[in-house]
C-alpha cells in the first residue's frame, strides 16, 4: 500500500470514528438538552458544527473515555454506551481542529 492509499484509509477510518462518536454524543445530548441537541444535529447535518457544539463534543469525548488501556488491576473500566479510547478522543479533537475549532 502506498502513502496515498494509507492516508485515504486513515482518513476514512477517522471519519467513521467521528461519525460513531458524534452519533453517541447527539443521543446523549438529546436526553439532557433537546435544544442543544437539535442545534448540534443541524450543524452536523450541514457539515459545520457551531463553536459551542464543537467544544461540547470535545469535552464529552474526553470525559467519556471508556477504554483506558489499563487492565482491571491497573485502573478503572468506565462503562458507557460506546467504546471510546484515548486514540478515539485524539481523532475527534484532530477532526475538530482541522475544521477550525479550538480544542
Automatic annotation (TrEMBL):
It comes from the Bacteria. This is Uncharacterized protein. It comes from Streptomyces mutabilis.
Amino acid at each position: 500500500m502506498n502513502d496515498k492509499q494509507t492516508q485515504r484509509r486513515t482518513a476514512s477510518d477517522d471519519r467513521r470514528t467521528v461519525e460513531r462518536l458524534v452519533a453517541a454524543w447527539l443521543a446523549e445530548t438529546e436526553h439532557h438538552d433537546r435544544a442543544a441537541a437539535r442545534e448540534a444535529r443541524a450543524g452536523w447535518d450541514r457539515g459545520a458544527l457551531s463553536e459551542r457544539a464543537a467544544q461540547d463534543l470535545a469535552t464529552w469525548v474526553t470525559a467519556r473515555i471508556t477504554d483506558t488501556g489499563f487492565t482491571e488491576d491497573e485502573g478503572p473500566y468506565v462503562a458507557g454506551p460506546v467504546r471510546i479510547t484515548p486514540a478515539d478522543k485524539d481523532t475527534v479533537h484532530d477532526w475538530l481542529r482541522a475544521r477550525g475549532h479550538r480544542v
